[in-house]
Amino acid sequence: MVVCLVNLSLLWCVCEADLNDISQPKSFQAVKLGDAVTIKCHIDSTARVRVWYKLTTGRRLQPVASTDMLYNLVTFKEQSEHYSVHSNSSSSHLSIYTTTWEDAGMYYCGVMILHDIQFGSGTYLMIKGAKMISDSVIQQPDSKSVQPGDSVTLSCSVHNNRCAAEHTGVMWLKNSDHSAPETIHSSENRNDSCQRSESGETTCEYNFVMRSQSSDDTGTYYCVVTSCGQMLFGNGTWINVQRDAALIKSDNLSPTVIALTLSTITFGLLTLLLGWTLCKNKKSPTAESRSSDVSLEGNQRGDAVIYAAVSAAPRSSSGRAAPMKYSESTVIYSDIRHCQQV
């Protein structure tokens, strides 16, 4: 009995996990350095524990806060005076009172069921400073056009004389007209990609290879550098994935051309249908006539009458054919034979 109850409980938890609906309405938010910001999350779930996590530029998932809905208890990982969480039955909103450079990153809202966490789509928080695009972060190339299926390599050089390489992280951010900004790659802090000059300046090279490009990959890719708590953006690289010529040609067709093509096809089909109908109607009377003739012939066979006309005019004694003259006394007999068919 106990085993059965445990199995039912697990099944209920799994079903509940499938029915969870976590929605973060904004996938991207930008705020000035030092301002307050609220990241919203809507939850349709009866889960008891709700959590907030942050994905840093170093690709580390760090817990920010958790809320026990049963006791209305909020627990922060650290800096409880820096964050606040407001939760009710249908939402869980994370607020940051005074933003710093360290607050930049991707924030995920989630619910905890047993030992599993189901997250929302995430919200990227960008901190806007006096100069976000830094001269010390150089991206190459500025732009590039590629064919579908090709590969492209993005390069980012970071020049820094104040922060060591082990305290520098790089993240690649994609921005396009068709989707919200999203984090697509993060480079680990590796000393082997960095060189230190005699003047004490450290230069780090980060490459990002994108393979099998498609039209969905078109957009601007930014190199985002976190160095000693400060976040800087590169100038960006515009990647244009060219579309197939056939697709471009079909897209360039005007509505007038499409309408004329459709009307021509429709007219052709109607012409064929009309010709077929006329041909069918033309054959129908001939068939009926033939059936009538056959029916009449069948009736005549049932009671056949043969008519034979005999002329009984007198013949001349000579072999010449004399002209026949008829008088009122001339008699003409007609022989009629009747055949009855059984």
TrEMBL record:
Major site of localization recorded for this protein: membrane
InterPro entries linked to this entry: Ig-like_dom, Ig-like_dom_sf, Ig-like_fold, Ig_sub, Ig_V-set, TCR_complex_component
CDD domains: IgV (cd00099)
GO CC terms in record: plasma membrane
Organism domain of life: Eukaryota
Entry-linked PANTHER family: IMMUNE-TYPE RECEPTOR 5 PRECURSOR-RELATED (PTHR19433:SF133), T-CELL RECEPTOR ALPHA CHAIN V REGION-RELATED (PTHR19433)
Organism expressing this protein natively: Monopterus albus (Swamp eel)
Signal peptide interval: 1-17
Acetylation keyword on record: no
Protein name: Ig-like domain-containing protein
